[in-house]
Amino acid sequence: MPISMYAITVPVFTRYLNNLDAVLATAEKFVEERKIKPEVLGQSRLAPDMLPLTFQVQSTTDRVKFALCRLTGREAPSWQDTEVTLADLRARVKKGLDFVSSFSEADLAGAENRMVTLKVRGEDTQVPAVEHITLNAVPQIFFHLTTAYALLRHNGVPIGKRDFVGA
Amino acid sequence: MPISMYAITVPVFTRYLNNLDAVLATAEKFVEERKIKPEVLGQSRLAPDMLPLTFQVQSTTDRVKFALCRLTGREAPSWQDTEVTLADLRARVKKGLDFVSSFSEADLAGAENRMVTLKVRGEDTQVPAVEHITLNAVPQIFFHLTTAYALLRHNGVPIGKRDFVGA
After folding, report:
1. What angle do CA B99, B104, B109 make, to 5 degrees?
2. What's the CA gap between A75 and A161, in Å, rounded?
3. B135 Cβ partners below 8 Å, 6+ apart?
4. How far, in Å, CA of B4 to CA of B112, rounded?
5. Rounded CA gap, A19 and A131, in Å?
6. In chain A, what residues touch B2 (CB-CB under 8 Å)?
7. Taking CB atoms and an 8 Å limit, are B165 and A140 in contact across chains?
8. Could A165 and B139 be called an inter-chain contact, meaning their C-beta atoms sit closer than 8 Å?
9. Is the CB of residue A109 less than 8 Å away from at least one CB of chain B?
10. CA–CA gap between residue B80 and residue B114 (Å, rounded)
């Protein structure tokens, strides 16, 4: 199996966004059964100065979107951060999944030779694409995914690591 | 910059284990200043049925070790899970870093063509190395790294996402 920019992005993002959707679906059921107001979990945090669940899901999907756009030169669509309920957050994940599925192996062919432009302390900085994806984009995506999982877990949603890792 | 099995493992593990060490160092200082017993944070959990910080650090380093051994056919050393204090956990991370630094680009050359053997429900199962690393090993490493970070953050240790992502 060859190693490629496609292999380290599209199948990974697809699998883990699907897993995030499944975890959010379990959270929806939990909230319904316990008659918890639909906006409560979305606003939950692990520390008062940490961003809430809504942000973690928005950031996961945004970072997936930007990673693929930077690798291909495609313009990133703008997604409004208006999600409140778990259903809204699942729709956001679905938007992310649809976007990921619009990238083919051909779209990402040769992306390992690109430089990507990032803002670092307000300045445009050029970084090799491989370095950006492996050392920054993928870790940050898993950071926000895991934080979303941890927030739900901490609030009693019946999920385990198997739900994070998926099939 | 070429994409390789080395590029998606060794530099990533090195950077994020170093970041974990820095976060644990901040936790050590926090514990000393507040005269918290040295074993308390190591036993902290985000949910009563979730494994504690010691496990998260042990699992991070174990998964790094197994990923590199599976890719190269090297035998994995056995590390006793005896850590109690934050100093112990930093020593465990150091052990992980030393092990990672023993792998060269040449050691991992061609690893994308290997099959790795995993136990799946007690059965030996062959999985392509690229699939194992991208869809399972790296996500699980970031799962445990982020959980360690989240546990410390939840307990008031003054860290931010910048400390997770590092330089």
Report:
1. 125
2. 35
3. A11, A12, A15
4. 8
5. 26
6. 112, 130
7. yes
8. yes
9. no
10. 29
ipTM, 2 dp:
0.96
| CA dist., res. A142 & res. B66, Å (int) | 20
B156 to chain A, minimum CA–CA distance in Å? 7
User: Which tens digit of pLDDT belongs to each residue from B138-158?
Assistant: 999 999 999 999 999 999 999
Contact B100, B68 (CB under 8 A): yes
Chain A residues whose beta carbon lies within 8 Å of the beta carbon of residue B135:
11-12, 15
The two tokens of residue B14 are 């090195």
Contact assessment for residue A71 and residue A133, using Cβ atoms and an 8 Å cutoff: yes
Across the A:B interface, residue pairs with CB atoms under 8 Å apart total 102
If one counts every other C-beta atom within 10 angstroms of the C-beta of residue A135, the result is 22
- Pairwise CB contact (< 8 Å): B164 & A147: no
pTM: 0.97
| Of A7, A12, A153, Cβ closest to residue B50 | A153
Question: Of the candidates A46, A134, A149, which has its C-beta nearest B12's C-beta?
Answer: A134
Alpha helices in chain B (DSSP H): 10-33, 53-72, 86-100, 105-108, 129-132, 138-154, 161-165
| Contact assignment for A15 to B130 by CB distance below 8 Å | no
Contacts of B59 (CB under 8 A, 6+ apart): B51, B140, B144
* Tens digits of residue pLDDT in A4-59: 999 999 999 999 999 999 999 999 999 999 999 989 999 999 999 999 999 999 99
Please tell me the total number of residues recorded for chain A in this structure: 167
Rg (CA), chain B: 17
User: Which has the closest alpha carbon to B133: A2, A164, A28, A8?
Assistant: A8
Closest Cβ opposite residue A46 in set B15, B150, B165: B150
The alpha carbon of residue A134 and the mean position of all alpha carbons in its chain are separated, in whole angstroms, by 15
B52 lies within 8 A of chain A by CB: no
3-state secondary structure of B106: helix
Contact A13, A64 (CB under 8 A): yes
